[in-house]
Fold each of these.
Amino acid sequence: MDENRITYTTPEQRQRERFERKSNTLAENMLRRVLALSRCPDSLTPFCDTLRRVYVELEDVRHPEGVSTVGTYCVMVPPELIYAHGAMPVKLCSGSYTAFSIGDDNAPRDACPLVKAVMGAETVGALPVYENCSFMAVPVTCDCKKKLAGWLSQRRPVSTLYVPANRERDESLEQFTAQLYALSDELAAVTGLPLRYENLEIGCQVMADAQRELSRFIAIRREHPTIIRGSFAMAVMNAMSYTWAPLWTKQLAALNGELEERARRGEMAVRDNQPRILLTGSPVVFPNFKIPLLIEEMGGLLAADETCMGERGLYDPPAVIDRSVDGIMRALANRATRPCTCPSFADNRRRIYRVRQLIEDYKIQGVVYHVLRGCLVYDYEYRRMEEELEKLGVPIIRLETDYNEEDVEQLRIRVEAFLELIKFGGGKA
Ligand code: SF4
Ligand code: SF4
């Protein structure tokens, strides 16, 4: 080897190296903190391994040979339809601080960090889960997603789905069903597998199995609100974004079995007197586990969440009345829009009902309302939520965060004060 040879690295290579170094450290650190929480179930390991594989080892998701992956950017893209076309859905909303710092240079200052992180991940090209996607589906739910769809479509094949602002009208359902048919045609072009009734049934069955196992998980948590920490549940739900659904279902069945065994022995994750918190608001996407971890490290129990990277993503099964291709497509369109509690819809009273229900089911003592900086749709709904919870006498705190660690100390102080307030029976935070 010629020792005098000078090797040059391009700015893109340097950016990529920096990304790999910093991104691995953050994701590994978050996983270490999750696993360090007391009474971590053994069956959590495969879920954390999946997150480690994607964010630390920077490897692609595991899937059967020959299967393409399709990136989705919202729970409103039905996974049933993607499985029906012989592909695997992967959720690409990003929680990477390192990707955010790169995307920050390309997006307007006030864009939300989730979208900036997606732009950064695309730009740096170091995450195989993005790189190997054959196709992406982006529902236009807010301005940030709309502009993201346009930006992404200059770089790779993208399907943009228009989501009706008013979901109650019949024509809104018609419109969204038509959007799903258009997406189906695009999927068929990518995978070579046209839409067939038998395959749609298989796609629905795969997701119904996952939903059934999730219902069992929810039932265990409702019956024993202190049986598992919410940070563990968040890892389970986030790992679903990158796991072949039948495998995830099997992993969740093992976790459910372990929790049922613990319940029989009366082994709870935390003591009964730890404040039980509900987390709602902007999505909590790995590795941005800042808020769930702060709540639990400061002595609270994250007993439930109302976020789309949590249970909401899989909570409502499609109600299929007419078992034909069109009947199933309508049921998927209906499920994606009508029961959804995302604030991107003009009228969102059902989110209040859902939060009230969760408060009752999980014996919640306080609500943490998470707002990602620039996420206006969630911020708009804060006041209404505060008024409703005041009527119930349940304290609420609004925590605005960004994708960095600069605000951690200030958040820690506020979370600690909130938990103290609950312990000593206070009202407003
Ligand atoms: S917050 Fe709403 S728009 Fe954003 S990913 Fe979740 S469901 Fe979709
Ligand atoms: S709903 Fe909020 S977090 Fe999600 S893309 Fe829109 S602004 Fe960002």
Amino acid sequence: MLAAILKSPGCLELEEVQDPQCPKGGALLEVSACAVCGTDVKMRQMGHKDLAYPRILGHEIVGRIAEIDRDCGLDKGDLVQVWPGIACGKCRPCQREEDNRCQEMKILGFNQDGGFAEMLALPWQCISRGLNLLPKGTDPALAALAEPLACCINGQEMAAVCRGDRVLILGGGPIGSLHALLAEAAGAEKVIVVEQLQSRILQLKRHTNADVISADGNEAEFLDSLEKTIFSETEGARVDVVMLAAPQIHIDSRLFRLLAPGGRICIFSGPGPGNYSELMDLRTIHYRELTITGSYGCSSRQNRKAVELLSSGKIKANWVITKRARLEKINDALNHSADRSGMKSVVCGK
Ligand SMILES: [Zn+2]
Ligand SMILES: [Zn+2]
């Protein structure tokens, strides 16, 4: 089969390799679509702490079952979306439906080969909790957005986003866009997205009901002007949730000024080096009853929910896909994500 193999940081090569075998109790997939995550771009450039080389990347996977060694209601030919976690199923987090916190967690495209290939071997652990059967006629590329959407569900559950909330999303890329759609679907009273790039601002205005604010000027001035805008947009009430969906945002207690009492901040994007400092204004946290939370990855339950939201059309995210490429053109797909001109790119199979 053809596979895109990361040999070392900076060295991604397309190669013919041997087809994987169907693992005992597992399945073999023919990959139909694998979306590019910001992490894939980062890993192509500079590797990742959880990577062993050589590695096939890609963890936002949809494929057709070519072989399955388990009686589980799924058959050869079924189109499935894959939760990329390989969880033990036995530890305390796994037993509590928090399998993204599994004590022995491994992830496809990180610790095991992922979806930027024609075929993918799924170990037995993936079968019971990790495969979501898709309805006939599903666009595999759209279904590949289920994993990043599920990560957003995790972030919004951690920040307890609910009906009537005012939600501020800092960063309007693919993840910020999915957060905006999700917050709208959750019944948020107001969604505000802050973004730098004009092309993305236009997309967000066209396809969401969010108020989109252009982020320009230097950062210190920007936060002051953002505070004024938020103040006037909410008649002085400020927002209930701040979702950090851009790694370059400097995180410190000035963000508290944007929050209403009882407000929540979710550190969704992994902050870049030097982009975080003191968030320990404990007096303000106490008097204004603030919550600071983080989120990383998604559970298989959240992944199932994301598939349902996309399949039912409750979330319309087609527009978030701005490039489709064949595996042979994987570098174009990664570059589209890296240059941030559009939103999300998806590598599509035959
Ligand atoms: Zn991802
Ligand atoms: Zn576990």
